DNA sequence: CCAGTAGGTTACTCGAAGTAAGTTACCTCC
DNA sequence: GGAGGTAACTTACTTCGAGTAACCTACTGG
């Protein structure tokens, strides 16, 4: 008995263990908050001892960064895929926003990490999160620039920041307003923000 | 020697000491980040021993909350004063925004606290900061509501969230763009966001 | 000048991050 | 199928900082 089944899997390959650690860590960080989460607890839940976490991620901060980074990558993939079929700037923006709202709806845990915890305190985590926003703003600014080469660069940047800020904030608000889904949230952002920029781009 | 001068002031009245502690704590938190800041260092810089901090603020978290709360109160005062002379919704919003951008320009330390650090990890600090935003969104939503009783409540809330999100994000961006002062930042927000809501309010 | 207390200190405990050094399961190649 | 090499893992610490118990001292009014 207990032959080839999976009663107690030990000794996994590195990559798999790493992924598993990220899963658990994301969960624990989201549950307890970064500070209150202890490496011992994460290790225990993974079913492994603490030094393994340090082996793979170097530090508690490193583990957090790992979680954030993974979420960031997934978000970028999703967004890029979503806007790949769009043609007008308006469509790009709308589809991108929708993808974002859908992503956070599905990955509540990761999202909790990105806001509550992750702004954390840890300087490098802040940088990592800023990286996500940068990703988004750059994308938006690039879209605007590509459709109107006359627009002031600084103004385009400002607009991108406004979109990202609005979106992030509205996503948070959606948690208190479950009746507002991704589609409606997207509409709100577009309704307010798009008008403001449309006549800059078109004219 | 060292007779009646002020070489070592000890034994201050409670309120004064408390204010001094908040000053130093704000500084140290902003400098090192919440996690890296140690109560021992803060105590030392204040020129007092650690248990005094605990006497007055209960915990490290309590001290942080104290700092945030003070900043919040100051910001609210400033904003309310700024919009007191305004008559139209547009004017209220513009003056309020301007007051905010000016406030963070003058209180960089407090602002650093409110974003980088304070989102911290500490659940109650997050609540406290959310309280600030709530303050702002409520104010904005109320203004809109007072000028157009027909507007959908949910939509008014969404708009308020969008304004706050935009503003916060743009304030951050201003740090990378020193040439963009409070006035220009206000203009950007108004230009993009106002148009979007103006034709909702006016009909 | 003595008593009461607001304001203050020293010297600890305890918990969690991080680490050094050793151990065991698994694979390979003879 | 056993030696032996190594990737995956553990035990048993050190260290550092938050929080606390118990004690002290400068200034007040009577």
UniProtKB/TrEMBL annotation, chains A, B:
Keywords tagged on the record = DNA-binding, Transcription, Transcription regulation
Ranges of residues in domain HTH tetR-type: 15-75
Keyword Transcription regulation applies: yes
InterPro entries in the cross-refs: DesT_TetR_C, DNA-bd_HTH_TetR-type_CS, Homeodomain-like_sf, HTH-type_TetR-like_transc_reg, HTH_TetR, Tet_transcr_reg_TetR-rel_C_sf
PROSITE patterns on file: HTH_TETR_1, HTH_TETR_2
Gene3D superfamilies in the cross-refs: Tetracycline Repressor, domain 2
- Keyword DNA-binding attributed: yes
Tell me which domain of life the UniProt entry assigns to the organism this sequence originates from: Bacteria
According to the entry, DNA is bound by residues in 38-57
- Protein name in the entry: TetR/AcrR family transcriptional regulator
Q: What species does this protein belong to?
A: Saccharothrix mutabilis subsp. mutabilis
């Amino acid at each position: 008995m207990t032959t080839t089944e999976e009663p107690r899997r030990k000794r996994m390959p590195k990559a798999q263990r790493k992924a598993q650690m990220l899963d658990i860590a994301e969960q624990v960080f989201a549950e307890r908050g970064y500070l209150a989460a202890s490496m011992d607890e994460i290790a225990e839940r993974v079913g492994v001892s603490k030094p393994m976490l340090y082996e793979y991620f170097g530090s508690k901060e490193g583990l957090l960064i790992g979680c954030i980074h993974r979420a960031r990558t997934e978000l970028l993939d999703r967004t890029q895929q979503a806007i790949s079929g769009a043609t007008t700037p308006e469509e790009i923006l709308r589809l991108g926003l929708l993808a974002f709202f859908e992503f956070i709806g599905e990955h509540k845990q990761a999202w909790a990490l990105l806001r509550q915890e992750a702004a954390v305190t840890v300087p490098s985590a802040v940088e990592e999160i800023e990286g996500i926003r940068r990703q988004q703003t750059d994308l938006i600014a690039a879209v605007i620039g590509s459709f109107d080469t006359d627009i002031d660069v600084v103004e385009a940047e400002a607009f991108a920041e406004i979109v990202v800020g609005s979106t992030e904030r509205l996503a948070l608000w959606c948690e208190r307003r479950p009746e507002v889904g991704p589609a409606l949230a997207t509409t709100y952002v577009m309704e307010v923000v798009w008008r403001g920029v449309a006549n800059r781009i078109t004219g």
